[in-house]
Here is the input.
Amino acid sequence: AQTVTQSQPEMSVQEAETVTLSCTYDTSENNYYLFWYKQPPSRQMILVIRQEAYKQQNATENRFSVNFQKAAKSFSLKISDSQLGDTAMYFCAFMKPLGGSNYKLTFGKGTLLTVNP
Amino acid sequence: KAGVTQTPRYLIKTRGQQVTLSCSPISGHRSVSWYQQTPGQGLQFLFEYFSETQRNKGNFPGRFSGRQFSNSRSEMNVSTLELGDSALYLCASSRGTAGDSRFFGPGTRLTVL
Here is the structure.
């Protein structure tokens, strides 16, 4: 069974600074997908960024980027120029193939990020 | 394009009752997944429906069931409610093809008294 581990239950950062959230996963699969989701106090789960395991290039979305280390099974999220609106719970998620177009998404326990003014 | 919608947003029930939650996916999406979120257990996968068929199921008792209609809308039913069923229930939609991103609705907050 695959697991997703987020070792930092809580983190804080000053506005405009950079912060990195860690995620490791355990799998024997070679073809899979990784995601970071953000859940602000409103509870709406928002997709931040995705990474295909077959791609060596790290994904970026504006101020959000990942450091994907496939051999180390590590998938960290870097948030640059942190903003107050980035305050949220961040979930790392792993999607494995079950056959055909059938995939299963598993989440880590989350990291609560607080951006301070 | 409208996002994923869930109804109702809040629900209060008593033990032993049953409840039905509804999820309407993004237009054109054929897959709907359901998750239970609690402070203690985090996000746990319940089941996934694709083209009116359940194709994945998590480790939940048979009291939790679901279905999907021909318009891809999905319902989740919980019978004989227990206090431990109090949670935020999230549904996510996707096109249903390989590796698709899941897009989540705002959730239904269920409180069992």
Summary: Chain B touches chain A at residues 33, 35, 42-43, 45, 48, 50, 55-56, 88, 90, 92, 96-104, 106-107, 109 (CB under 8 Å). The longest strand of chain B covers residues 42-50.
